[in-house]
Give the backbone structure.
Amino acid sequence: MTESGSKSRLPARTLFGLRLASLRRRTISRTLHPIPYGAGTVYLSDADFAVDRASFAFAVAEGSYVTDYRNAVVLDVGAHKGYYAAYAVAHGAHAVVTYEPESANLAVLERTAAGYRAHGVTWHVRQAAVDARQGRAALHVMGASWGHALEPPDAFARHEIGMETVDVVALELALGDVTQLHSGGRVIVKINIEGAECSAILGTAADAWRDVDELFVETHPWATCDADDLAAYLASAGLSQVTSAHPAVLRMRREGRSQSD
């Protein structure tokens, strides 16, 4: 495999940062734990340490989104605290655009992006959810930082701790947002929106995907469609399903364009 970002060890300084954070939180009270990664720093929240560490591992250490990011422009829909975007930048992405609606995650995402920008990285942060149509909507906020959703399953009710009214950007506009930064490299999109992937993707015209070279979609069992439904629709946009590194991540690619594998 020649893809940039294949499964490999984390940088030694990142591993040390993770271990140090685990030790420090036993004796030192702090809201965020800084972890050096690539050109900047990502943060694990103390209140959601286990969840954030698992999210970081999924996006960065486990190779769930492995591909060639060299000179790519990346759209990260459902950016959480910026772990995937940091991974893309560390593996050569030219620019990233991140969408995140929930206020606590957004504050950390903004801090992370600012640190990378200080090192010359192009990283845009948009405070919004993404779905098929523009508007405003109620975001259900969960006790854990990775479960916030526009339309959660009923079983999530016991985890809900509040609501936030958020802007919703149409996926077609978000796709147009990132392609404006296109600099000759590939356009890569990652979507993780807690079950709203069906309404967002199936409700977006096939032509809107014309500039997208590769797409990763994290699928959820409570969504109104499955990976096969999404793959069949995206095939009409010229994207073909390829082998994914993780069973919950649908990976689609536009064949015939330059890539390294």
